[in-house]
Amino acid sequence: MPLAFIIGTAGSGKSLFTAAFSEWLRMSKQDVAVVNLDPGALKLPYQPDIDVRNYVDVGDLMEKYNLGPNGALIMAADLIADEIENLTRDIDEAHADIVLVDTPGQMELFAFRASGPYIVNELTKEQKALIYLFDAVFSINPLNYVSNMFLSAAVYNRFFQPQLHVLSKVDLIPKKDAQAIASWSANPRELENAIEQRLEGTKRLFSRNMMQAINKLGLKFLLMPVSSKTNEGMININTTLERILSEGEKYTT
Ligand SMILES: Nc1nc2c(ncn2[C@@H]2O[C@H](COP(=O)(O)OP(=O)(O)OP(=O)(O)O)[C@@H](O)[C@H]2O)c(=O)[nH]1
Ligand SMILES: [Mg+2]
Fold it and tell me: Which ligand does the CA of 169 lie closest to?
């Protein structure tokens, strides 16, 4: 019963992807359990089987400790770590083939605080993988794309779990743009060409150097285009996820 954590910047499509991919898995006869790990979620596009909001209530924290919404979210992110045993029990009791975990809206609260890696490590003893979302609309610009590569490398460096990379919301951009972005991930030359053609001055220099720094880290990945509205690409995610989990290797793709 492996766990796949869905991660990405705020609004990158984590929750809708969790909804669409879990539905897709159910249609292909897989027994899936869905976990909501976002204590600040007001409305979710799926019905969670396990919900952190049963244990941590952001509204209560605001009231009790006289915090604003952001302060309460930070406190909530850390309090989730205290609920690991409860959440692990809930997940174990679900007896699913695969567990999808929707992570908190603001990625930094999960990835860049001590509690995030602790939660990923301690939440059940099962195998783990991360699915990192690149927002397609944001990624059309090579500078934004490179910044997101940097963020995904930083996330990898926090969790050291197998990491899949997804280009989300591809239904919102022209097909040729989606193909171009995917080709940047497959071939650094293509990305370099786009940087040379479409950026200038400091932006060009910055993007080129940042891209080279990431390449030097040896982090290679392929972006898989996906739409949670049309289900395009879900089959690729499933195949790649299965391959990574069966190999159990620590690498990114
Ligand atoms: N067209 C289209 N819209 C999408 C897709 N995925 C997400 N969206 C929209 O993008 C917005 C953000 O999606 P969410 O799934 O809430 O993203 P999130 O990363 O969970 O956001 P937070 O948890 O609030 O940070 C919503 O309006 C979604 O309907 C997609 O594949 N296609
Ligand atoms: Mg969300």
Answer: 1
